Structures are given as C-alpha cells and as structure tokens.
Amino acid sequence: MQPQAIIELVADDFAAVDAEIRERLQSRVPLVSKIGDYIVSAGGKRLRPLLVLLTANALGHQANNHRLLAAIIEFLHTATLLHDDVVDASGMRRGRSTANALWGNSPSVLVGDFLYSRSFEMMVELGSLPVMQVLSQATRVIAEGEVLQLSKVRDASTSEETYMEVIRCKTAMLFEASTHSAAILCGASDEQREAVRQYGDALGVAFQLADDLLDYRGNAEEMGKNVGDDLAEGKPTLPLIYTMREGTAEQAALVREAIQKGGSTDITAIGAAVEASGSLDYTAKLAREYADKAVELLSVLPASPYREALEGLARFSVARTH
User: pLDDT digit string (tens) for 138-197?
Assistant: First the structure.
C-alpha cells in the first residue's frame, strides 16, 4: 500500500486530528501560538499520529477519543523537535528555517515546554491512567536518550550497542508509545497490546536506521536538511561506527578524526570511505530486518485494510528517499 493510500484510509480522522491540534495551539500569548503553528504546519510526515489512527482502527475502535490521543502524540513529538533543534543548533528542518533560527533559543525552548504541558492537560482530559503512564514514561525515556546522545557527541569510541540504545530511546520510543497507547485505549487483548508495542519499537528502529543511511545517500532538497548534518554535529551513527570497526585502517582513521573534530568536514571523502567499507549496505540490511520483524508482529491483528496499511508503513520506512 502506497503512503498516499494509507493516509486516505484515515482521511476523516486525520482532518479531525489537524483541527484538534490547531485548536489546542491557541494561547493568550500570541508568540506561543505563532511558533507552535509554524512548527506544526511545516508539513512533516505525521507518522506518529498516523500510527495511533491506524492501530485504533485495526483493533476495531468505535469511539473518537483516538483522535485526541493522536493529537497528544503529535504535540509530544513537536516539543521534542523544538528542543532538539536548540540542542543541535540546527538551522533547517523539513526544508524551512527552524524556530530557533527565526525566534531564538529561549522562545523555542519555552514553546516546547508549553506543548509538553498542553499534551499532559489533554491526557488528563482523555481520562486513561494506563495511557498516561505509557506516555509519561515515554517522555522520560526520550529525554534520557537525548542526554545519552549528547554525552556521545564527538566520542569515536561509541559502540553499536550504545548507538542502538540511543535510537531506541530517542526515536523508537515515541513510535512504540503511539501504538501501545492506542491499543490500551481500544481495550485490546494482552497479546495484541504487546505485539503492537513491539511493532512500534521495531518500526522506529527501522525508520531511524534508514534516516542515518539517508545522511549519506539522501537528497538534501527532498530531506529538508543538509546531507551530512549528523557527521558535522559529531554524532557517531551506525554507518560511522561500522566503518571504524570493519573498514581499513585508513577509512577508520578518517572517520574517527571527523567525529572527534565535528564541524565542517569533507563529506565527499567520508561518504566514499563509508560506502567502500560496506557500512551503508550493513545499515540498510539491518533496517530491512527490523521492518520485516515489524510486519511479522502484526499477525495477531485481524486482516483489514488498516493492518495492511501498518504493514505498508513498515516497508515504506526503509524504502523512502527522504
């Protein structure tokens, strides 16, 4: 199933979620609404709220409160983006200037805080303590992942195990929370809840591995960010870790120096070393394995277009070009 067909499958839900988001962005402080609206309207994939909607429908949910949950998830995600861009000193996201580039770091951090606070107000309104438990834990784990990643910037000794821990916390956690909380809201069986929770984790890992791959094989215009950004920030991603571990001494030394120095680097030379070492093929293979695992986990759900869409998302996560 193609991405556009997946979105069309839950078009009514998506429109309702968008309206919910825009209503909840309103604040008596105009700058809060302005920055929030700028970020939310940036045209991202909205994969996390989409996961909520598809999971709920795949489980036969009859009420409309999954739409509020999807909006909550998007607010949590947007808050992390605002904070991430400040931490990383990013100037571009999704092909546009970041909020911190336009308004400065302080307003961006504070509006991120506003979105976190608003999301928890909405969780109270949702009225499900188990859902709140999943989402509050997720926000804590994401913060821990951010700090762990920060502690490994320019650390060329970072292992693959540590890297996987970072992406599980930082990226996969909110994918997992999206599917897990939707299943709880639907009153799914223990077997189904656990399966879709693991699906979200596997999908998130596959998605991030593909992202790290695109840092070398992607198109900057399509991606909405500069190719090689992670390397310039001194982040040891899997292609770099593998090259240092399995590449030639010369390839390893080149990558190690680039990570330790950070900043402006000859991305062409690094890209050639990473490609020649076989690390991009290794990363792509691992991403496909996680995507395949995600698809297999969905076997506990009844056959439906929504389950097919969830399977399609797993395959799209590793086939995409941006």
Answer: 999 999 999 999 999 999 999 999 999 999 999 999 999 999 999 999 999 999 999 999
pLDDT score for 208? 96
The answer to whether residue 317 is domain-embedded is no
CA distances from 258 to 155, 255, 265, 279, 281 (A): 10, 5, 7, 16, 21
Asked if 247 and 273 touch (Cβ cutoff 8 Å), the reply is yes
Q: Per the structure block, which two tokens stand in for 303?
A: 């056959």
**Contact by Cβ (8 Å): 243, 279:** yes
* CATH code: domain of residue 256: 1.10.600.10
DSSP H stretches of helix in 127-189: 129-151, 160-167, 173-185
Q: Tell me how far apart the alpha carbons of residues 230 and 310 are, in angstroms, rounded to a whole number.
A: 29
Amino acid code (one letter) for 31: L
**8 A C-beta contact, residue 67 and residue 24:** no
- For residues 201 and 90, the model is more confident at 201
Structural domain that includes position 12: 3-312
